[in-house]
Write a structure and sequence with these properties.
Blueprint (H helix, E strand, L loop, with lengths): L5 E9 L5 E10 L4 E5 L6 H6 L9 E6 L2 E2 L5 H7 E4 L12 H11 L4 H14 L15 H13 L5 E5 L7 H13 L3 E5 L3 H7 L2 E6 L2 E7 H5 L2 H6 L14
Parallel strand pairs: 3-8, 3-9, 6-7, 7-8
Antiparallel strand pairs: 1-2, 1-4, 4-5, 9-10
């Protein structure tokens, strides 16, 4: 079998105040997969994600991306390979125009001129925002800003796209538009979400974190249909939603 693009082995982590969050996580994701990372608040999802591009470093165990260990000497390449789209797009948008925001990352890697413009144009086209290139980000709707935030990451041509609560605060139309974009991408996707119907719609596979360990790694529909497991791990489907009939 090929080398996983995300290869987490025995990952343990405690914050400086001594709070232990991860207790030995194993996670292996292969190229092209779309995987949902589920679990209640405090399960360790965000802490795990922050290890994927070196924002945090393991207390024990290891994290590798496409065979490259996540460690300080590899940060530049790791952060090109792994793009994280945070829950609030305003955490990623700070320039005068959409074009400038999307160009920021590749320009820092040394891309210039026509090559940079082509990269920006392609990323904006992937998220359906090319016509807004000269708009100030703060004039866009929340859903449009989220799509631009995705474009800022896609402009780096990552191998892995990590989406943190991508459907939060989106109206139904923006939610559907983003789902269509995610399905169209050729990158590996790891989606951190409490939106279980969205996980079912977009991710054939789901991993559940609970108390700092992997409690389940399974087919999303099968997992969401296990009422006893869902109840035990504080996972709640919307009223009337039956994953077996969707």
């Amino acid at each position: 079998m090929s080398v996983p693009v995300i290869d987490v082995r025995g990952l343990a982590y405690a914050y400086p105040d001594g709070t232990q969050v991860l207790y030995g996580v194993d996670l292996h994701i292969h190229a092209g997969e779309r995987v949902a990372l589920l679990g209640p608040n405090g399960a360790g999802k965000t802490t795990l994600v922050l290890h994927l591009n070196g924002i945090l470093l393991p207390g024990a165990g290891s994290v590798a991306v496409s065979g490259l260990n996540v460690e300080k000497r590899n940060f530049l390449e790791i952060r090109r390979r792994v793009g994280i789209v945070f829950q609030d797009p305003d955490d990623q948008l700070f320039s005068a125009t959409v074009r400038d925001d999307v160009a920021f990352g590749p320009a820092n890697l040394g891309l210039r001129g026509d090559a940079l413009e082509r990269r920006v144009q392609h990323a904006l086209e992937e998220v359906g925002m090319a016509e807004y290139a000269d708009h100030p980000p703060h004039h866009l709707s929340f859903g449009q800003r989220r799509r631009v935030a995705v474009a800022t990451v896609l402009a780096m041509e990552p191998q892995i796209l990590v989406l943190d609560e991508p459907s939060s605060n989106l109206d139904p139309m923006a939610r559907r538009e983003l789902a269509d974009i995610v399905r169209s991408l050729s990158v590996t996707v790891l989606m951190v979400t409490h939106d279980l119907p969205y996980a079912l719609e977009l991710c054939p596979r789901s991993v559940v974190l609970a108390d700092g360990v992997v409690a389940a790694d399974s087919d999303t529909r099968k997992l969401l249909s296990d009422e006893d497991f869902m109840r035990a791990h504080r996972l709640e489907l919307p009223f009337g939603f039956d994953p077996r009939t969707v």
